[in-house]
Design a protein that fits this description.
With 203 residues, this protein is mainly α. The protein is built from 7 helices and no strands. The longest helix is centred in the C-terminal third of the chain and has 34 residues. Keywords: Membrane, Transmembrane, Transmembrane helix.
């Protein structure tokens, strides 16, 4: 299925956002959709439909699924992926718009990469800070619940971007607003926690 302009824009935004939460699952789902002909991948993303790329993405997605359910391991995984998710989100979004803008393709590719990186950074920062705050609680259930929410949100938002882009955009705006609030609240909470740990104990 060939993408129209609105679907292309929605999928580009969805790829950037989803990469900040579940990079390998995002790569796998896009690869599957392209491999089975559900969507016509642009030239910059056709490599994702390669069986080798899909196999590697599936293994890494499984590792991420398991690591994300274990307190502290999830935060270590997030810290490592600060260097991976954001540039990968930028690259995926740039690949999505490649060849779409004609003579201005290179300029639009840079703009797309900046926007994709920004969306991935926002989603990643919200995920990492929320999970770090949740790890201060001794019970594991909040962590598992937050992880499962991410597991469901990524395929749901990618599907909405393809099938119902007019529904996707308001939901993305809402998700970004919630994430911005969570980043502010969680960093404020974690900063207060660090200050408390550093404060000298009473004699």
């Amino acid at each position: 299925m060939k993408l129209d302009a609105l679907q292309l824009l929605a999928l580009a935004a969805a790829l950037g956002w989803a990469s900040g939460l579940r990079l390998y699952l995002t790569v796998l789902l896009v690869g599957i959709a392209g491999h089975w002909g559900w969507i016509a991948l642009p030239p910059g993303l056709q490599v994702l439909a390669s069986p080798l790329v899909m196999s590697a993405a599936a293994v890494l997605a499984l590792i991420e699924f398991l690591a994300d359910k274990i307190p502290l391991v999830d935060s270590a995984w997030d810290a490592l992926h600060t260097l991976i998710r954001i540039p990968a989100g930028a690259a995926l979004v740039a690949g999505m718009v490649s060849g779409w803008a004609g003579d201005h393709g290179q300029a639009w590719g840079i703009v797309a990469a900046l926007l994709g990186g920004g969306l991935a950074a926002t989603a990643h920062a919200a995920k990492a800070s929320t999970r770090a705050a949740a790890n201060t609680s001794p019970e594991p259930f909040s962590n598992i619940g937050l992880s499962l929410l991410g597991d469901v949100a990524v395929p749901a938002m990618l599907w909405l971007a393809w099938a119902h882009p007019l529904v996707f955009f308001p939901l993305l705006a809402l998700a970004l607003a919630v994430m911005g609030t969570l980043i502010w609240l969680c960093f404020k909470f974690l900063r207060a926690l660090v200050r408390r740990w550093r404060a000298p104990s009473p004699a």
